[in-house]
């Protein structure tokens, strides 16, 4: 089975998902995963679909460009290599790391440098920066898989030190606790 990953970017408006998925349907593709969001005024969508054997990624990309170009959207499609195993974090626990603080350059880079150094995988990141010094206007939520093998106390200590250095308040919670508290 062939799979394709497609990214669609452009100014947000109603109908982008409908137009994108209509092309996939017409080309005989089966939608398997979708992640889309609005970043300020911009639509950002990523789709994974299985494709019929007789459809090429190039033809699909052209069909998507024809349909979505009229909406001034940018499209990029590439094959998904199904021969490469999916990254799995065996022996890990899901956590949520949240930071709040004044907006400035390097916040995400600083926190993710500590996360990466410990071999922790970021599975989702949501960040809203509205600028200014109001910490409630600048929030980052990192969903991560923390391996059991790492020294949790050292990891959390280094994250807290980095957050303090960056002027951020930080919270590190198991995902189940985060979800219970925030009723997600």
Given the structure, what is the number of helices? 5
Number of strands: 8
How many structural domains does the protein architecture include? 2
CATH architecture of the largest domain: 2-Layer Sandwich
What's the CATH superfamily of the largest domain, by name?
ACT domain
* Residue share in helix: 25-40%
Biggest sheet overview: 4 strands, antiparallel
* Span of the ends, CA to CA: 35 Å
- The CATH top-level class label of the largest domain: Alpha Beta
List unreliable stretches of 5+ residues.
none
Mean pLDDT equals 90
Query: What's the alpha carbon Rg, rounded to whole Å?
Result: 20 Å
Strand order of the largest sheet: 2-3-1-4
Outline the fold blueprint.
Blueprint: E1 2-11, H1 16-26, E2 30-39, E3 42-51, H2 57-69, E4 74-80, E5 92-100, H3 107-117, E6 121-129, E7 138-147, H4 152-166, E8 169-174, H5 175-182
Antiparallel strand pairs: 1-3, 1-4, 2-3, 5-7, 5-8, 6-7
Helix pairs in contact: 1-2, 3-4
Structure description:
- The chain folds into 2 domains: 2-80, ACT domain (Alpha-Beta Plaits); 92-182, Alpha-Beta Plaits, CATH 3.30.70.260.
- It has helices at 16-26, 57-69, 107-117, 152-166, 175-182; strands at 2-11, 30-39, 42-51, 74-80, 92-100, 121-129, 138-147, 169-174.
- β2 and β3 (42-51) form a beta hairpin.
- It is an alpha+beta fold and 184 residues long.
- It is globular and about 55 Å long.
- The strands form 2 sheets. A 4-stranded antiparallel sheet has the order 2-3-1-4, covered by helices on one side. A 4-stranded antiparallel sheet has the order 6-7-5-8.
- α1 packs antiparallel against α2 (57-69) and α3 (107-117) runs antiparallel to α4 (152-166).
């Amino acid at each position: 089975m062939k799979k394709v990953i497609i990214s669609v970017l452009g100014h947000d408006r109603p109908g982008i998902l409908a137009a994108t998925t209509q092309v996939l349907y017409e080309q005989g593709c089966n939608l398997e995963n979708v992640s889309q969001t609005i970043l300020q005024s911009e639509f950002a969508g990523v789709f994974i679909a299985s494709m019929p054997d007789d459809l090429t990624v190039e033809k699909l990309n052209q069909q998507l460009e024809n349909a979505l170009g009229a909406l001034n959207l940018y499209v990029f499609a590439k094959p998904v290599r199904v021969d490469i195993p999916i990254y799995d974090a065996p022996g890990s626990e899901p956590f949520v790391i949240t930071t709040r603080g004044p907006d400035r350059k390097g916040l995400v880079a600083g926190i993710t440098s500590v996360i990466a150094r410990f071999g922790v995988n970021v599975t989702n990141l949501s960040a809203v920066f509205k600028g200014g010094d109001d910490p409630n206007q600048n929030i980052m939520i990192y969903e991560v898989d923390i391996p059991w093998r790492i020294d949790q106390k050292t990891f959390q200590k280094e994250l807290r030190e980095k957050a303090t250095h960056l002027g951020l308040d930080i919270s590190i919670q198991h995902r189940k606790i985060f979800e219970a508290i925030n009723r997600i």
